[in-house]
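Quick start: read one record
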Amino acid sequence: MEEDGSGAVSQNLTGAETGTRVCRVLYIFSGSSRKGSVSSWAKKLGSRMGITVQVEMIDIKVRPNWDLTKSKNRQLLLNKIRSGRYFAILISPPCSTFTRATWSNRKRPRPVRSYVQPRGLQRLTWSERQKAKWGNELTDFSFEVCIEVSETDTMLLFENPEDLGAVQQGNLYGQRPASMWQWPTFFELLEQSGWETVAFYQADFGTEYLKPTRLLLKGFQFQQQSEFVPGKPTFDEQGFYQGPLTRRQAARQLIGHTGNSFATKGTEQWPSALCRWIASQILEKFHTSVVLASGGV
């Protein structure tokens, strides 16, 4: 299909009206392809609905040439987004430099950022400064993508761990880790029409660990999903987490180490049930758009 610079919906609907019905999804920081992923569910559900789904996965694990720590690659991807090629965009930026795991033990690696110094602590080693810089660039880019689609019909989902506020136990009690949800752009987007945010436990989608998670959403209908709790994270005067999630116990804890790795290793993959919900949301909205564009009711 030729790109003409029009909006994402109209680009895709042009294909639909000529019988191709192509729903294009951009998945930034997708990780490796696997069974039960958004991509696999989108293709499976799309085939049932007569919709061809193209999921463009951007991750160095699957496309090493798309290293988004390089500014030229970030600009190339922004240009593709501006062209209106995609009906939906999913973003799950790496949270390794934001992880609370580094605050829960005395072993290295150390935290490289905090609530007070979100873009990097002072007195970091050279390698720690590079990690912080890398995390800043990818976080800034993720929010830049949000800004790019803010005035369009493009659906967008941005995922990262919930901001759980100040540390509630251990030798770092009371200190507050950084979170992507502390970035000013997050709050600025929520002031605009069409943007919403929810928190949830991944355990409610089938994992044995809780993993409190937050989504920034545009164009998704979450109101019928009891797993999602709407609203921004809230804290008391000392920075301790107040909600919207309530405290629960899990069969498996993600604090500390398992062998030589953090207990969080391997939990970056979204559970299959969540992936199915995301794919269903995109395809249902795409189908509705096709019907409306073709003059249906």
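Residues 8-293 form a domain with the Rossmann fold fold (CATH 3.40.50).
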